[in-house]
Design goal:
This protein is of the alpha/beta class and 464 residues long. 37% of the residues lie in helices and 24% in strands. It is built from 16 helices and 18 strands. The chain has helices spanning 14-25, 65-75, 110-125, 135-143, 145-160, 169-175, 181-189, 211-223, 266-272, 279-284, 353-356, 359-372, 400-411, 422-425, 431-445, 449-463, and strands at residues 2-10, 30-33, 45-48, 51-54, 79-83, 86-90, 93-96, 202-206, 227-229, 233-238, 243-248, 251-262, 289-300, 310-312, 322-324, 340-348, 381-395, 417-419. Strands 1, 2, 9, 10, 11, 12 and 18 form a 7-stranded mixed beta sheet that branches. A 7-stranded mixed beta sheet has the order 7-6-14-15-16-13-17, with helices on both faces. Strand 3 and strand 4 (51-54) form a beta hairpin. Helix 4 runs antiparallel to helix 5 (145-160). The longest helix has 16 residues, at 110-125.
Length: 464
Amino acid sequence: MTERQDMVILGGGIAGLAVGYELARYGHQVTVLEKDAHAGGLARTLVFDGYRFDIGGHRFHSNNQDVVNWLRDLMGADLLQVPRLSHIRMNEKYIRYPLQFPGALKTFDPLTAVQVLLSYAWAKIKPLQEPHHTFEDWVIHRFGRKLYEVYFKPYTEKVWGIPTTELSAMWAAQRISLPSLAATVIRALVPGRTPPPTIIDRFYYPREGFGMITDRLQEEIEARGGRVITSAAVTGVDPSSGVVTYTHDATTHEVTGATIISTIPLSLLLRMLPADSGAQAVADSYELEYRDLIIVDLALKCDQVSTDSWTYFPDPKLIFGRTHEPKNWSAEMVPSSDVTSLAVEIFTTRGEPVWEMSDDAIIARVVEQMHAIGWIKQTDFIKGWVLRVPYGYPVYRVGYEVHLQRVLDFLKRWDNLHLVGRTGSFKYMNSDGVIEDVFRLIGDLFPDEKQRVKALEKERERWA
């Protein structure tokens, strides 16, 4: 039999759970389908031998007070405020990250510092030509070639695995907020001036890991009569009838929703749509990419590795690109005060050599390299765990907008199918951006309270 719900949500990461929570709050019948054994997606917190690790380090900060209030209301006393301090390892030195001028110039040798200043000055006085299509062009025309070469280029290429000449300028425009020299001076002179989003000095974090947020969302959905079904692999989506087919406990099930909300990768969604819809042809020409991650979690028998929130490693010889120390975010992330841990991110793509390495080989390489650069002592290593994470980041390759629009135009034929979140809509967002995207979707579905009530009544009449 086909079960009937107001809303069926594909994917139980933070986007799917947040939109499910909001819909359940307004009295809608909600079913969230998650293929993994646990909900939370990339926002889960994993526990190994008493050590708690997030899947990557997720800070929560927003200049949108509605988003902040939403999180505070959800988490209550479990929400901490954590100081932010990050460094990037360049030329065997650890430099504040993001760079903060003019002090950052002291970290370069004199010749490089002069070159950075001169190229920056030249970028500021020469005419700014638009549009810029590549990441390289966008950065050079705003910050100068030298700063691009020594700062932006190495880490960016390590993260994405492609030359910056192939990365869209859209990525830079959305993500880079390195302040100008003038802006830095102004903020120093004007107390209370709001910093750019990436220059914040504190962020919110739940005391037992970021996964507390998704756990709480699941609890709230279920408390309001909604369902979060894990180990549920969606196999078919027919927006015309509202039928979603999935397997659970080796059995095929169907659930029908008046509205279907997808947070899963677009490539997977296309292959789940009806064969006669033309989705297969769109899927066959699909040229959007995701960058994957390998997370290596290390338990260490020392008090602390550093005081950093994050540390960045652009050196291409190092297998890892970023680390964070969970204990610096909350003391409850480790089993006792005399130990610590590191969550290590390796940027890769399925099929690359590192992805194919065994877990033990990856851990050994990470520990060996960290010892070699003096980041940890090999003798402090206790144990390690490896998690491979597909679909970590949408890749903004030059021309991606055309391919994305082709998919979005195709999906517009169904007015009851909606996309939300980083993976579902192919938009790079931090967690606060995901919540804003959820608010946007709720506003689109129900512009005001009366319309929400009317929509609910109409949906239930439809299935009566």
